[in-house]
Amino acid sequence: MYKADEYRYENMIYNRCGRSGLKLPAFSLGMWHSFGSVNDMENMKRILFEAFDSGMTHFDLANNYGPVYGSAEENMGRILKSDLMPYRKEMVISTKAGYDMWKGPYGDGGSRKYLIASLDESLKRLGLDYVDIFYHHRPDPDTPMEETMAALDTIVRSGKALYVGISNYNREQTEKAYRILQEQKTPFIINQVSYSMLNRWIETDGVKDFMYDQGIGCIAFSPLAQGILTGKYLQGIPADSRAGSGKSPYLHGGDISREKLEKVRALQEIAKERGQSLAQMALAWILRDGKVTSVLIGASRPEQIRENVKALGNIRFSQEECDRIDEILR
Ligand SMILES: NC(=O)c1ccc[n+]([C@@H]2O[C@H](COP(=O)([O-])OP(=O)(O)OC[C@H]3O[C@@H](n4cnc5c(N)ncnc54)[C@H](OP(=O)(O)O)[C@@H]3O)[C@@H](O)[C@H]2O)c1
Fold first, then answer.
1. If you measure from the C-alpha of residue 185 to the centroid of ligand 1, how many angstroms do you get, rounded to a whole number?
2. How far is the CA of 300 from the centre of ligand 1 (A)?
């Protein structure tokens, strides 16, 4: 039976999630990759324990994480049962529904039917009575937003989730959802959005500032652009990387353009001057202005977590550094 490090809370920063009472660690662990039925159970445990021992209390799932769909939740359920259940009250576990999950008209989108049925199945796979945060995974233009938001409200009131969130909602969609959820008095606390040095859409769209101004938490996913911002692709595509393993349909050699690599190379120089690895600088940069609650990192091995959390040693950027970084990213 795993026993957590008793000093695990000492080196992590915990940020209040929007105006809620819930604090999230500056780094949370995403279970999109590395936790499916195709992955090794011992490695999964080592990643999870490394994260928890580093003070990362938040673990992010979705109904369809795997592959195969559902298997990341099943594996989390197994590890909770064998090792982590004594720590359940110290963990924030989230899941989502919104993308395709099962065949037929009720396994995708934003209907009340899909969201409620999906969460019931997620809870069974996880072996839990409730999740801490339940998200609608993406906006669905075919379902009235009022229906989706009312389903989130029902879920919280039924005790199956403590808080709700949305994901991949832009400024306009976030504002609309927020107004409905406020009227319903639903404990809506967070929007999960993609954000990295190579993907700054939340800045230009205005959703980042909107969330900050309204007191909505912001959790940033794919902060390392799926690994590109570690510099690991500068000398070609390693066979054991996400792009090289052939296991991920979401990152291909073609996504790693020469233009991106030139930026990565230039950014690496600044990281060196700061005494950080590029991965550490890229993660710290997301936290630089205090507007992001948590950075949602993925890992294929525990050593990556160990390296990445050290980013918290320096999350301050001088104006000159910010200007140089902006110039490279332009
Ligand atoms: N809401 C949504 O629609 C949505 C979408 C995508 C993701 N997410 C969430 O965000 C989480 C994180 O996404 P992500 O996995 O794309 O994040 P990421 O942090 O950008 O990429 C993580 C990957 O980069 C590589 N890596 C990480 N640290 C490294 C290091 N120090 N040195 C070398 N390589 C390193 C590893 O891949 P390899 O070692 O295999 O190369 C790792 O799996 C997901 O797990 C999920 O929870 C949500």
1. 33
2. 8
Residue 92 scores a pLDDT above 90:
yes
Verify whether ligand 1 is closer than 6 Å to residue 197 (CB atom).
no
Ramachandran area for residue 275 (φ above 0: left; ψ -120 to 50: alpha; else beta): left
What average pLDDT does the chain have? 97
Nearest-angstrom CA–CA distance, 320 and 111: 48
Burial 267-279, CB ≥16 within 10 A → b, else e = bbebbeeeebbbb
pTM for this entry: 0.98
Burial of 162 (0-12, 13-18, 19+ CB in 10 A): middle
Q: Is the CB of 296 under 6 A from ligand 1?
A: yes
> Quick one: the chain helix, strand, coil %, rounded to 5?
45, 15, 40
pLDDT band at 276 (very low <50, low <70, confident <90, very high): very high
Q: Which helix (H) or strand (E) holds 315?
A: none
224 CA distance to ligand 1 centroid (A)?
7
Domains defined for the chain, CATH in brackets: 14-257+278-317 (3.20.20.100)
- The 3-state DSSP class for residue 58 equals strand
